[in-house]
Amino acid sequence: MNRDLTTGKPETVLWQFCLPLFGSIIFQQLYTIADSLVAGKFIGENALAAVGNSYEITLIFIAFAFGCNIGCSVIVSTFFGAKRFEQMKTAVFTALIFSGTLCLMLMLIGILGCRGLLELIRTPQQVFADSKVYLDIYVRGLPFVFYYNISTGIFSAMGDSRTPFYFLAASSCANIAMDIWFVAGFRMGVAGVAWATFICQGISAALALFVVMRRLKAIRTKGHIRFFSRSICMKIAKIAIPSILQQSFVSVGNIILQGVINGFGPGVMAGYSAAIKLNNLVITAFTTLANGISNYTAQNMGAGKMSRIPQGFRAGLKMVWLLSLPIAALYLLCGKILLMFFMSTPSQDAMHTGLMLLRILSPFYFVISAKLVSDGVLRGAGLMGPFMIGTFTDLILRVVLAIILSGTQLGATGIWCAWPVGWSIATFLSMLFYSRGPWKQADRVFF
Questions:
Q1: How far apart, in whole angstroms, are the C-alpha atoms of residue 21 and residue 27?
Q2: Has residue 29 got a pLDDT over 70?
Q3: Is the distance from CB of 59 to CB of 257 less than 8 angstroms?
Q4: Spatial distance between the Cα atoms of 79 and 86, rounded to a whole number of angstroms
Q5: CA 105, CA 107: separation in Å to the nearest integer?
Q6: For residue 110, which of 83, 143, 69 has the smallest C-alpha distance?
């Protein structure tokens, strides 16, 4: 059901809107977690390393889909909040065309260049073949990834966070079952993991797009609806391109880090692959909640209700900090148990690597979550310059420090130590930019 985020108590509105988003991201992460879990449990440590190795490259493709999601969602939210439904529908159709064109270009690049990317990150020979199989199948399913992301962006823009949750819950559970069926039943190896994801994402994308079209048809409009608008496309691109660049450079940074990690051997690769899935589950959850805050900000900007934005910011901080506490405690106290879900008989290197990563990063979830909430407000307001400055500062610091520290006596542990430094400095910058936003005259109390 569509929901107006410009009325009601901001904290209540955000909780009701964002909680289904949080549930959605848990199920979305089950796609990649299930792939790693099944690969590690039913095939072996090298298969887990191969899926984790490929995952860093798939994040580049996901970055483009995510950028299109954000660009579409923010612009559609603004039109929805302003009750300009003709332009809203035109924005939806424009986003679908824009995203489809971009997707076709990426598929071509992926089909031709995956081998080169695997070689670039120094993929060990014992996991190279499985990594390439996984990537080849994944790239062919990119249209599903793109159009599912666009559909969820449209739902969120219209204040509906429940429908994406229902789709993801069903498809993620189906993906786990198909992973096990293809790998344990049909003995398809890593290819089975990839094909299970391909099929489930395809079905969920088709259904989501169908429901979006029906939802749009139900909104009555009087004016002419165009299927493509150059001016609206430029507005979408203004939000989407910085988001794509941000996510892409983060992915490139992760690929560089993966290359450094690969130099420590399959044991460290497997431990990193397991632990980074747990870490990314948290970061992606925070990011998704921040996307909800972007929708909230954009709707209220469109409606001219500037005073509600600082209230939403404070409610968002409370939300992510309440979430950070139990997760940090869980990772610190039960890290070994969680890692065992991914590895049947882990080597000493694998377990040590996974535990160190979780113990170093989890106390700083309070820091990075605050940055992502600030980013959500900045992005929803269209302030993409400040948004990118904070993100690139984090990335550059993490990559440079990881390369330097990994060459010291700290070894692989030095890589994980770089994360908190980048997060802390970038959070300071993002909060500073937020405090200088156009809403500062509406409410001088920010925290």
A1: 10
A2: no
A3: no
A4: 9
A5: 5
A6: 143
Alpha-carbon torsion, ordered 70, 75, 79, 80, to 10 deg: 0
Total Cβ atoms within 10 A of residue 116: 8
- Predicted TM-score (pTM) of the model is 0.71
> Which residue carries 């930019």 as its tokens?
433
Over 70: is that where the pLDDT of 369 sits?
yes
Instruction: Provide the CB-side half-sphere exposure for 286 (13 A, CA).
Output: 26
If phi over 0 gives left and psi between -120 and 50 gives alpha, with beta otherwise, what is residue 383? beta
At 330-360, the pLDDT tens digits run: 999 998 888 887 776 777 888 888 899 999 9
Measured in Å, how far apart are the chain's first and last C-alpha atoms? 32
Q: Which of 111, 145, 117, 106 is nearest to 53 (CA)?
A: 117
CA separation for the pair 243, 258 (Å, rounded): 22
Q: pLDDT of 242-281, one tens digit each?
A: 878 877 777 777 778 777 888 888 888 888 888 888 888 8
The answer to whether 296 touches 9, Cβ cutoff 8 Å, is: no
For residue 287, is pLDDT > 70?
yes
CA gap 302, 306 in Å, rounded: 9
